[in-house]
Amino acid sequence: MSTPSFLTVTRGEAPLLVSLPHTGTDIPEEFAAGLVSPWRARKDCDWWIERLYDFGAGLGATVVHTAISRTVIDVNRDPSGASLYPGQATTELVPTTTFDGEPLYEPGHEPDSDSISRRKALFFEPYHKALADEIARLRAIHPRIVVYDCHSIRSLIPRLFEGELPNFNIGTNGGTTCDPALTARIAEICAATGRSHVVNGRFKGGFITRHNGRPADGVHAIQMELACRGYMREPVGPVDETSWPAAYDEAYAAPMRAALTRILEACLDFARNAR
């Protein structure tokens, strides 16, 4: 079966899989009806993350990327619709609001159950099949692998969290999806940058991390949520079409990119030194 056109799988042989679930901006015409605006529909994209991590394939990592916008369907949410953060504000499998709580759809145009099921079949299931296939392929040649899920978010979103988000947000679902030794090593690298970091703070890892992290089976999954100010000139406070997204600036992003390179190298060292 051929890979769907929206899905890119770059295969490497190293014991590392890099997941890019939220960098897509494509909204097929079928699913654009009723949206308030194209800009609002793409507002919560993980902007420029695919460029920030484009060194991953050069390290031998396998990279899985969807071009589909998270507004169409969020491949990092539980497909059952259950909240990953009970009691806290979040967005759904098929979001109906932005992170700031703004409606994505005109009243009465929200996706119905049939539309949600179609989105799952077209976009959610192929992404997760690709992840599962690549995890199985890599585990067949390595006793231990790392699944590294890449994310970013604006630094100030009062609806989701208080104050300014740390630069590096490491998520392992409370330590269940990854060996603590690797988590500690990544935290050390983050601390050495002089920038703020937290382990299992507001963002503990989404469905990709929780579903695939099986340390006992040699699959260690970790989510990295970056505050956007760490790699782009992020506007302070609310954003609009004139200010968001900020342009990607290679020079500005370079220190963050260097830290992320060390982090992926640490993931490779950890996987290759399995006992």
What is the gist of this entry?
This protein is of the alpha/beta class. It has helices at residues 38-42, 49-52, 113-139, 180-192, 207-212, 250-272, and strands at 7-10, 16-20, 62-66, 145-153, 168-171, 197-199, 219-227.
Core attributes:
275 residues; 28% helix; alpha/beta; globular
Which secondary-structure class do the elements indicate? Answer: alpha/beta
Give the helix level as a range of percent.
25-40%
Largest sheet properties: 7 strands, mixed
Note the overall shape. Answer: globular
Radius of gyration: 18 Å
Write out the strand line-up for the largest beta sheet, numbering strands in chain order: 1-3-2-4-7-5-6
Strand content: 5-15%
| Low-pLDDT segments | none
Order of helical and strand elements? EEHHEHEEHEHEH
Helix count equals 6
N-end to C-end Cα span: 36 Å
Total number of β-strand segments?
7
Mean pLDDT, to the nearest integer, reads 96
Describe this structure in words.
The chain has 275 residues and is α/β, with parallel strands linked by helices. 28% of the residues lie in helices and 14% in strands. The chain contains 6 helices and 7 strands; from the N terminus they run E-E-H-H-E-H-E-E-H-E-H-E-H. It has helices at residues 38-42, 49-52, 113-139, 180-192, 207-212, 250-272, and strands at 7-10, 16-20, 62-66, 145-153, 168-171, 197-199, 219-227. It has a 7-stranded mixed sheet with strand order 1-3-2-4-7-5-6, with helices on both faces. Helix 4 packs antiparallel against helix 6. The protein is globular, with a radius of gyration of 18 Å. It starts with 6 loop residues before the first strand and ends with a helix. 41% of the residues are buried.
